[in-house]
């Protein structure tokens, strides 16, 4: 089938390649001339036969909103727009309503796989009506990881793709996936730090590598940690500065909205916030209090010697 | 080679079987007559040719201590005792010192694999001298998972076995492994709860199954969660009561000892404590305070109607 | 001066009394006939001379929104509306904009003091323009706690009242106050629980009472905990079920919005969520995982004996 | 009565002064000649009439242990030793047993009050037998804060002093006090940071000062925060580096020992650990993982330009 794909960056570019390898025709548009197959949204829409499927893979927020609005003007009833970006799930109903005015369908797709997706396939969590999802299914099948027949995984055909519910459900499921990801990374990080803190452990990378088979905590993330430690055994070349994208924040916000206790995921999110602070106002206040009641020494900000 | 194995319960029994399948001779002792190959420690030691390797697989604490002491009386210089149980790493040096008085070697081995170990192999983290570890190596090789040549795991030969350092390092590494396990389980649990809390997600087990391929959070634990949800899609048949064994507690204690921040693992440990409380004294105090300052209603303990 | 006061419940009723004791005239309206001075908003507005000050003390959300809208129709340029309820600070600018269309001023006032406010005074955190705040100042002065000249408190005249910033700043400051309150209550609760958990402490209420003078942790909340324990030394008559109002949630949401690490306050919020769960889906998942990998016993839901 | 006092530093020196002001005779010993009344423990014991009370106010651990052992040699049956330092409660029974061999009594006293104690009095939490505590009571009465008759505190005579239980109970109660202190300080710190993070709040010190009367969160610590902000409104002169003493760690250890969930106090302890790290190994691992799966940029350690 044909697919229109908007946004050909790190993710979109690899997805174009994977869909093409599966035998589909992909017409790609990107603002960068060197990446694009066509040079405008109009040209992209014109190159596709109705009913069209157009996949949007641009940054969440304004760029996605503007792209969806533009497609609302260009597409026609029976076409389907897929938002495969990292949109907040609450944006999806807005997008769907906007397109529904013209009879255009909408599917939201949470996509996991990162830079490994071209090779391994992309896991897909989608939301939308059965009818709309069905129109995109050949593309989903091309993107998702192939069934691993050697694997003893219990998920069977359910691995790598789910139609999670109505519009919004795909991005919600992907959001929760990322929240879990935060806490798993934090868990490995805390364990790594404790191993590295004691003289007793003489081979920290070796311990972590040993965990990759036969243990309860083996995982793909653990494999990646092994790789990272092979490249830099003491993690000496990087600093402990960790960005966060929206999904972790939204996961905790939703937990609060629904009164779900979420101590581990929230702790992991806050650890990232802390990692980016040069100095912590909270801990300044704590230090100031200790000084007030106990006369405890505080670390004064170092002052340049005026001489 | 020959192995003496003490403790033939759920773990020890399967390990005997796996070692035998690898072609070694195992002489097993257990207090239960129906499990034992020989009926006493004396008989076990008598059945082995020096230099002997005796693997202790009994509960941590007093049972292990008493077994090590008894072996100290029965074994001779050049023999090696392996503690493969869940001992606290601080016990290991005590055991090693006790046996060293008679020239007997000591190796501590953290073992992961649970009920799946017979089939998949057991991951092993060991501590001790090079010489002592070498004496046990054929048994370690029999127990550990075979190298998965199909796998693209980066650990290679290092997967499933590590000599982590001197006496104590094996149990320390296993302890940290279990601490990480707590936070990973908590992460999946929190994510599951949020998915289940919203109407938007129509297929919670399906979402979780979809995560098993192509995602960042795929892991063996996630596969197990898929299995659990296949057996009981709403987890209706079990209660949220989670035991904890010593390793999680010791991990947090060690973090405190070494000033390692450990917010996610500790939160996971505390969540288990909470899960076992019928009522929380902390939250009683909170409720009492709300009542004091705001006249907020408290839930009074229900009183049986005297009529 | 004159004050129109809408909402004469537990808080509003006591505030009317305190303002009257200070010599001001209060015209109160409430939906309940037995509480009201006048029987409609129209009558309330009619009873006041311009420029009027009308204080809204009704539940946050729709009730406040509707009251502000109604006042927008009834009041005139130069009048001022004060929202003294527990509105989210983001509502304030909406209210202010709505009233500004008619030249009516708006002040948001976070009010602390609970059932003790009539006796001790109410702490006030207000937001708005200097001009609008000035019009309400005599009422603020009547409500706030009197300056304690015996006290060695360093705040001096600044105790009990602050003009924190523009519209919204009052409710924001009150929101943060409540977030801190959550963690303080949790701190005392956790300490209480640990004292009560050990046989070593023979007089738990006595220990807590002793902390009320000379210690670092003495506070008004601690005094209230002493009272609660005097009434019920083992807190046997209440259950550990703790509600939460919006402010705690909003505080954590704002922390996430501004990338402020907030581990203690968020932990306190989540503890309240947990306190209201009969069973925890998170911990069901954890228990299910333990069962899967270790064959660990789970607590099955008890089934009534069919016989 | 007479009191022997060992250790005349910041705390001990002020305590000597307060006891003397109450009309008692204090014989003080310190290693520093400029502080001491007598120049040896022997001289101190010799200057007191039996039955003697000797108060030890030296650093916890070895210094206290050695002092207690020395007093065991010098004192006689019927005398009482008080350990008023920051000893771990588990040390107390060891000390008591050691002295009991010679019929010497032992009382452990947790002391709160810091640099403010001379002026305000010291709160005392004590453990020991009724008989031993009674022998020291006049000294306790001299040290503790006077009953504040103006106060409406509910504790009455129970404020500032408690006999909490047998040997060890005093230090246990003080340990819990300090754990609570950690979380209260963290709570104020987190609230301060959020206020300071938003433009909406134009007067952060003013907001905090306003909280000191009439609010739910008023406390002595809050007064101290007001003072700190008066001295340095933006806390610009100090860094967010917060030490921790043993009590916070022991509180969390005891919570783990007794399966008491302690999320807020532990989070506060870990925040202090983080505050002292130049770089976080945990967050290095997290950053390395993000880089592995997403190609996300990491902050490389800055390298000096070789040119």
Layout of SSEs?
The structure is a homotetramer of 307-residue chains.
Chain A: E1 2-6, H1 10-21, E2 25-29, H2 41-46, E3 53-56, H3 62-74, E4 80-83, H4 89-100, E5 105-112, H5 117-120, E6 123-127, H6 130-143, E7 161-165, H7 169-197, H8 204-210, H9 220-231, H10 246-257, H11 263-275, H12 281-294
Description:
The structure is a homotetramer of 307-residue chains. Chain A has helices at residues 10-21, 41-46, 62-74, 89-100, 117-120, 130-143, 169-197, 204-210, 220-231, 246-257, 263-275, 281-294; strands spanning 2-6, 25-29, 53-56, 80-83, 105-112, 123-127, 161-165. Chain A is an alpha/beta fold and 307 residues long. Chain A folds into two domains: 2-166, Rossmann fold; 175-275, Orthogonal Bundle (N-(1-d-carboxylethyl)-l-norvaline Dehydrogenase, domain 2). In chain A, strands 2-1-3-4-5-6-7 form a seven-stranded mixed beta sheet, sandwiched between helices. In chain A, strand 1, helix 1 (10-21) and strand 2 form a beta-alpha-beta unit. In chain A, helix 3 (62-74) runs parallel beside helix 4. Chain A is globular and about 75 Å long. The relative contact order of chain A is 0.08. Chains in contact: A-B, A-C, A-D, B-C, B-D, C-D. At the A-B interface, strand 6, strand 7, helix 7, helix 8 and helix 9 of A face strand 6, strand 7, helix 7, helix 8 and helix 9 of B.
